[in-house]
Amino acid sequence: MICAGIDGGSRAIKIVLMDCATCKVLASGVRDQGVHHERLAKELLAELLKKEKLTRRKIARTVATGYTRNSITFADATVTEITCHAAGVRYAVPDAATVIEIGGQDSKLLRLSPDGTVHDFAMNDRCAAGTGRFLEVVAARLGVGFEHLGAMARAAKSPSPISSMCVVFAETEIIGLLASDAKPADIVAGVQASIASRVAAMIGREARPPVVFTGGVAMIPGMVDALHRVLKVSVKVAPKPQMTGALGAAILACRQAAADGAASKCSARCYPANKRNEGR
Amino acid sequence: MNDAPKRLSMEDFDRLCRRRLASGAPVAAYEGPLARHVADGDRRLLKLQYDDSPAALRLWSFLLTEEERLHAARAAGKKIVGAMKDLGTVPVMAYALPNLVAFYPDGAWWTPCVMELSEGLFGLAQSLGLGDAMCPVRAMAAAFVNRAHFPIPDLLTCSVGATCDDFSAVAQRLESLGHPILWWEMPARRRPDAGEPAVTLPGGFSAPESQVAVVRSELERIRAALADLAGLPLGDAQLAAGIREANRVRALLADLRRLAYTAELCPMPALEMLIAEMLAIHFCSDREESVEVLAGLLAEVRRRTECKEGVLPAGAARVFWVNPVADLRVMNLLEDCGARLCGTEFLFCHALDTIPTDLPPMEALARMALADPMVGPSADRAARIVRDAREFGAEAVVISRIPGASHCAMEGGVIGDIVRQQIGLPVVELEVPPLADPLWPTLKTRLEALVETVLERRKR
Q1: How far is B347 from B221, CA to CA, in rounded Å?
Q2: Parallel, antiparallel, or unpaired: how do β-strands B206-208 and B339-345 relate?
Q3: Cβ contacts (< 8 Å) between A120 and chain B: which residues?
Q4: Distance (Å, whole) CA B382 – CA B35
Q5: Could you tell me if B427 lies within 8 Å of chain A, comparing CB atoms?
Q6: CA A66: distance to chain centroid?
Q7: Which residues pair with residue B103 across a beta bridge?
Q8: What are the φ and ψ backbone dihedral angles of A5, each rounded to 5 degrees?
């Protein structure tokens, strides 16, 4: 039995197809987000199914998550990104205690219980200064590709301090830095440090290790180092961090299918430790 | 009504109201469809969902006719007291005199919220130098200027000091516009030093006797001003009678809260509970009618609880809510996301506690005033939240903030940490501006995630 997880993020749609019996990922794909959220999700799903020589009928259950989850009307259920990221991280890094997720338009902190479920969470979504949007703004201002930011940050000799708490004002600050001959690499590193500081403020006093970094921004080299410097604990990037939400959604779809009896078997890996005997 | 209770759109709510009015059932003179208030500009009402009980019909009509009630009181020759910033002390004193009516001008901050900013109070406040960076209570100063809402009070009192910086600034600006204010000082409540004479306050905290004495002497000035205004003496006997009447309101609210928040099925929606609790502050300008309105709500909640009727599906996540919201729709949203209200701390919990009746009345009032959660350490506030969340069986805590409101800008973190540490509940902080529409998806995500977290915890 196959289940699908769709993460309709603000910047990209991600889909994971999972075999419920083995709890293994069969296929995954990413596509840029656009205006027609559902149509784009359907197209990506069709693409993945075709690649795997499968049909929609084979999908027992679909769970949608992410900013546009409510637009995915063909999904059987919606679950928030918070719960999905916890499930996805648990699958990939079973002993994770703290999850930092930075996406295109928000950042999240998740504290996990020993069984991998969410104990508590915090979100920053009022200000772009703690999100991937900040990096997009700086990339555009410096006229470099998003993919080059990591390499630039690593080349920084003296990261520029970015004091503004707002992306709009920070952009003005960056213009000022450029005018005063600050090196672009130092500016990028400064922006990464600024995002990391924002996330650290959300975490507060305690970042209980192991800390796992996920979300699209985790793919940008340099960000994990910036977080490590600010949090002063080791931070591990989740495997395929952009896919974690969709992965979690697929896992939850498998669990729901098992609970409904739609999937007769479900791998232990899909379940938190204390739930492994249920639904099998 | 045999149908299970439910939440209604305004249209359905008004249909019910018209049916009730036509049926000849005894109704209060102020009861009527909410559409009349929409016609006056309260457009937010169109987007809310309402409890379908006659008691809720009465509650909403009572709330929304307050300005008419104040104008009628003035026309009847009564003197009007604007009790500013003081959440529940001066009104108890004012209503002890038969020809005084006290109200809460600060409550005008809700006007732009329910009118969806259409009546320009914030713009007017801005022109007075009270801009966006300040608490929405700035709408009050504008309401004094445009005179389109409440009548200008005959006496304005305002507690100042430890209460709220933003409000103090707004009130000072108001005074500069030609509205004299009788200021009274509220010290920052502190814990008594070792060996220092101390008293226990309503709500369980203690404070130095010397601080209570300061508040008592300040309230004596208020007593004299109220007596002057009324042209009647305000002796201990009248005050004691006023305290007894205020305690009737508080007792009804205590029963209502206990029943509503602990019932297995939610017997009354969050929005109506929020409005009901607000009656504690100044009785919505009619103390006796507040008693009737609350008694009606309590009877309905009791009936529903006994019949095991709920307005929400069974199993809703039990959420304790901290601070009032500027956009009332968020209380509906909480329920839409699968949660129910199980306890509140709207910054005036001292106005819900019984005022001691075994003390001289001014001493009792001073102790009650000093129990105001706003004038003590955030840790005290958190301690009460922890206690009440335990008592009501809450499974999660929501701390909402109002942009610009300095009294709740920083303490959310303190309260959240203490709640997590002491009772291990998940806590989520929200910021709810007067019009939360742009934040709706994110507010929904947070509340849904909180509900998912609670439901996962139940499985453990």
Answers
A1: 25
A2: unpaired
A3: 420, 426-427, 453
A4: 40
A5: yes
A6: 9
A7: B82
A8: -120, 125
Q: For residue range A7-20, list pLDDT tens digits in order.
A: 999 889 999 999 99
pLDDT-above-90 percentage for chain A: 54
CB contact under 8 A, B456 and A83: yes
Q: pLDDT tens digits for B130-175?
A: 998 888 899 999 999 999 999 999 999 999 988 888 888 999 999 9
* Contacts of B121 by beta carbon, 8 Å cutoff, 6+ apart: B108, B111, B112, B115, B139, B142, B143, B146
Name the residue facing B456 among A81, A106, A118 (closest C-beta): A118
* Cα–Cα distances in angstroms (integers) from residue A51 to residues A6, A47, A48, A58, A223, in the given order: 17, 6, 5, 14, 33
Work out the average pLDDT over B110-120: 84
The predicted model gives B384-406 an average pLDDT of 92
Classified as helix, coil or strand, B201 is coil
Mutation pick from B453, B455, B459, B460 vs chain A, by most beta carbons of A within 10 Å, is B453
Helices in A147-242 by DSSP H: which ranges?
149-154, 167-179, 184-203, 223-231
CB pairs under 8 A between A and B: 52
Beta-bridge mates of residue A112: A118
**Angstrom distances, CA of residue B93 to CA of A132, B66, B86, B254:** 56, 19, 12, 21
pTM, to two decimals: 0.91
3 state DSSP class of A111: strand
Query: Which helix (DSSP H) or strand (DSSP E) does residue A12 occupy?
Result: strand A12-19
Angstrom distance (rounded) from CA B395 to CA B450:
10
B457–A117: do the CB atoms touch at under 8 Å? yes
Beta bridge partners of A19: A2, A24
**Percent of chain A topping pLDDT 70:** 91
Position B96, amino acid: A
* Chain A residues inside the 8 Å CB shell of B442: 106, 123, 125
Q: CB–CB of B441 and A121 under 8 A?
A: no
B367 is written with which tokens? Answer: 């102790």
- Residues B320/B396, Cβ–Cβ less than 8 Å: yes
Q: Give the contacts of B452 (CB within 8 A, at least 6 positions apart).
A: A79, A80, A82, A83, A118
Of all residues in chain B, what percent are helix, strand and coil, respectively (each to 5)?
55, 10, 35
Q: How many CB atoms lie within 10 A of CB B68?
A: 11
HSE-up of residue B283 (Cα within 13 Å, Cβ side): 32
* Tokens describing residue B382: 């958190």
Q: How far apart are CA B41 and CA B119, in angstroms?
A: 8
Token reading at A256: 């729901």
Residues of A in contact with B426 (CB under 8 A): 118-121
**At B297, which amino acid appears?**
L
Chain A touched by B336 (CB under 8 Å): no
Query: With contact defined as beta carbons under 8 Å apart, do A127 and A202 qualify?
Result: no
Q: Is the peptide bond prior to A210 cis by the omega test (within 30 degrees of 0)?
A: yes
Which positions in chain A touch B439 (Cβ < 8 Å)?
A: 126
- Kind of pairing, strands A107-112 and A98-102? antiparallel
Q: What is the DSSP letter of A21?
A: T
